[in-house]
Amino acid sequence: MPNVLIYIIDALRADHLSCYGYPRPTSPRLDALAAGPGAARFTRAYSPATWTKPVAASILSGCYPPAHGVRSRNDLFIRAVPRLAELLQSAGYRTAAVSTIGNVSSVLGFGIGFDRFVDLYKDPALVSQREVSNTGAWKLYFEEDTTVVLPLAEDVNAAALPWLEAQGAPASDLPSRPWFLFLWALDPHDPYYPPPGFDHWRDPGYTGRIDGSAESVRRVRTPADVQRLVDLYDGEISYVDQQFGQLLDYLAATGQFDETLIVVAGDHGEAFGEHGDFVHGHLAYEEVMHVPLLIKFPASMGVAGGAVDALAQLTDIAPTVLDALGLGRLAAEMQGVSLLPALSRDGEGRSPAAGQPRRHAFSETQASTANNRLLAVRTERWKYLRIDPPGDYSGNGAAASPAGGRQRLAGYWQQLANPEMVKRLLRNPMFYLRRQMAERRMLFDLAADPQERVNVAAQHPDVVAELEAALEDWLAQCRSYAELSDRQGVAGLDEATLAQLHGLGYL
Q1: Phi, psi (5° rounding) for residue 311?
Q2: How do strand 179-185 and strand 3-9 relate by DSSP bridges?
């Protein structure tokens, strides 16, 4: 059986990679992987949410946020949904994960199915070596402040490579087993601090106040300030690209590269003021919904590869991996579809029964019941954005409904009880005001308006009705998945973990 490597690069937007047309050479190693034999570059891949935590659960489960239930900062990944790690474990794989961020951590349930799960963000050995920050809290709507270590991609390698070496040296006479390695790199997530030697695009004439920190993002005032942020961000991309290349070099040196299934993706994109916002966690415009997705298939499969224009979502990663391994039957309960049929160009490749090409890509973001729910549905031509009022849309089997005035006010008071939230509101009131003043229904013709500048909902009521119906059908499907999963109970956590989570106030 082929080995499997999934490498997720946090906050990586597609159009800042050279292989997606970016003029700067930010990603030579990713470009080479995408151009190599058996590699597919999906040009229209989309994230199911605009911040990390729900996306990570979608990648590992093949299900959407309203179905797997990881939607807000308080949610745990413990619903009884399919899990790629568990399925591969049952098929004989050794499994390991290394995460750099608390939103993808073992304590939240992401460790289920992994023989080893490394939470680098709380590694005490890194505290004296790396930046520590509470960055990101202000823009994930009312996220609580938490000071954490910000590991680098080289720290991911330092944790992953010894585990890989151990897999090649079995301690007994038992036959070697294939491995599944899931890696989550924090670069180029803000703060934008490219390591020494990677600030390639610094303008020596820039004299502004932008240094890449979260505080400096709030000080952006001029086009030069925005460009400085972009320059720093691009430097971080070039750094993580180099570090990812070192993993590829190891696989090549040990003779494992050809027969390893490799998936590389961004979990969401990053905004630089295109629609008035920065970073991520807000409306699913293309800059935060469109992500890179590269899949290098084992040489023995004979996949042609190349650019693939079919719509794809990160929920499709798990079904595609299982299909490529000959385990497609294990993806039957996933909402994602295998992308292998999209690579069958002569009609003689994989059976279309492995999955039907998708017509829509969906996204849902809601950080708490006190915040608006942000929905998106995209076809090849159209993008429809809908803003629902605050309320409980948890997808737990109960009827989804907006909050009443009293419930909404109580939710706001609960969030404002955090003094840091009050500070952020006073420092940047326009950020939160825009959340309330945005148009509630927006339609964009991406063929004529790829920058999503002109809302044409009034001119195309038929398209709005069609996409609204698709959105409601999708939400109903997600509720059905959630109801079934809830009846199956809490997945996989042992008594010790459940006791720990209860002690931490999660359960």
Answers
A1: -60, 140
A2: parallel
Q: Are residues 341 and 375 in the same domain?
A: no
- Return the residue matching tokens 């049929």: 341
Backbone angles phi, psi at 99, to 5 degrees: -120, 145
CA gap 502, 495 in Å, rounded: 10
**Residues 316 and 458 grouped into a single domain:** no
Tokens linked to 453 = 């500048």
pTM: 0.87
Overall number of domains in the chain: 2
The amino acid at residue 484 is: L
Q: Look at residues 327, 359, 391 and tell me which one is the last residue of a structural domain.
A: 359
My answer on whether 59 and 45 are in the same domain is: yes
Of 329, 359, 389, which marks where a domain is finished?
359
Q: How many CB atoms lie within 10 A of CB 439?
A: 11
Cα-flanking dihedrals φ and ψ of residue 445, to 5°?
A: -90, 100
Residues 387-410: pLDDT tens digits?
999 888 875 433 455 655 555 555
- 405-416 vs 419-427: helix crossing angle, rounded to 10: 100
User: Residues 439-450: pLDDT tens digits?
Assistant: 789 999 999 999
Alpha-carbon distances, residue 103 vs 167, 218, 274, 281 (angstroms) = 27, 23, 26, 13
Give yes or no for residue 462 having a pLDDT over 50: yes
In this structure, are 371 and 473 located in the same domain? yes
Q: How far is CA 129 from its chain centroid?
A: 26
The whole-angstrom separation of Cα 74 and Cα 71 is 8
74-77: Cβ within 8 A, 24+ apart: 74/368, 74/506, 76/108, 76/109, 76/501, 76/506, 76/507, 77/108, 77/109, 77/110, 77/112
Q: Mapping DSSP to helix (H, G, I), strand (E, B) and coil, where does residue 470 land?
A: helix
One domain for residues 377 and 336: no
The range of the structural domain enclosing residue 278 comes to 3-359
Cα-based distances in Å from 243 to 238, 282, 453? 9, 29, 37
Strands 382-388 and 132-133: unpaired
Q: Are residues 280 and 369 in the same domain?
A: no
CA distance 156 to 256: 19
